[in-house]
């Protein structure tokens, strides 16, 4: 923040009414600018008094009058610049907007990821449910299928009925085999 005595500010504001709004504002790049232009302050070498500045402006005006191609545009800069068009904030509003935008985007991304994860989990649950149903159906058919196999004795039926359901993958493999290979 640029700090000046009250008398200095009041004097300056009395001649520059539009500067009153800057009285309590932060100037975010003040330190950088003062380090760059420290040798060009009004009391140091290179300082100009108002007569020198007016003379310089008049000289530029004569140069423009002699060369109409230059026009009223000073070296590519616009003439009409008002305080209303200038960004006079300290940047905190822009930071706040940026953070809000980032939070909104993050929220949307989290929502999208959540939906995709829910779909994936639902798909896995559905697949697992179908697999369990297939295993249950196979377990129900197991006794009848074992009875169709020639050469098994009753103890082998019950031993197989007690072991195969504990290994559902083996049961599915068993049912996928042709009937003449199942005994081997």
The count of strands amounts to 0
| Mean pLDDT value | 73
Please work out how many helical segments DSSP would assign. 6
Between the first and last Cα atoms, what is the distance in angstroms?
91 Å
Q: Main beta sheet, described?
A: none
Question: How many structural domains?
Answer: 2
What percentage of the residues does DSSP assign to strands (E)? under 5%
Level of helix content?
55-70%
Radius of gyration, whole Å: 43 Å
Shape: rod-shaped
Order of helices and strands: HHHHHH
Could you give a quick summary of the protein structure above?
It comes from Gossypium australe. This protein has helices at residues 6-15, 30-36, 50-66, 92-148, 154-163, 168-176. The protein has 184 residues and is mainly alpha-helical.
Describe this structure in words.
- The protein is an all-alpha fold and 184 residues long.
- It folds into 2 domains: 6-90, no CATH class; 93-176.
- 60% of the residues lie in helices and 0% in strands.
- It is rod-shaped and about 120 Å long.
Question: What's the topology here?
Answer:
Layout: H1 6-15, H2 30-36, H3 50-66, H4 92-148, H5 154-163, H6 168-176
Question: What distinguishing features does this structure have?
Answer:
mainly alpha; 2 domains; 6 helices; single chain; Chaperone DnaK; 184 residues
């Amino acid at each position: 923040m640029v700090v000046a005595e009250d008398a200095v500010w009041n004097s300056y504001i009395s001649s520059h009414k539009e500067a009153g709004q800057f009285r309590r504002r932060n100037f975010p790049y003040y330190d950088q600018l003062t380090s760059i232009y420290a040798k060009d302050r009004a009391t140091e070498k290179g300082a100009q008094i108002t007569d020198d500045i007016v003379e310089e402006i008049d000289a530029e005006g004569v140069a423009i009058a002699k060369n109409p191609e230059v026009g009223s545009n000073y070296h590519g800069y616009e003439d009409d610049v008002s305080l209303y068009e200038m960004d006079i904030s300290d940047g905190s509003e822009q930071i706040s907007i940026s953070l809000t935008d980032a939070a909104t985007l993050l929220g949307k991304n989290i929502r999208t990821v959540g939906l995709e994860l829910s779909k994936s989990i639902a798909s896995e649950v559905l697949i697992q449910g179908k697999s369990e149903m297939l295993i249950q159906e196979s377990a129900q058919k197991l006794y009848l299928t074992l009875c169709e196999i020639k050469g098994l004795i009753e103890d082998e039926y019950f031993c197989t009925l007690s072991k195969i359901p504990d290994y559902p993958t083996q049961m599915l493999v068993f049912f996928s085999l042709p009937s003449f290979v199942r005994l081997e």
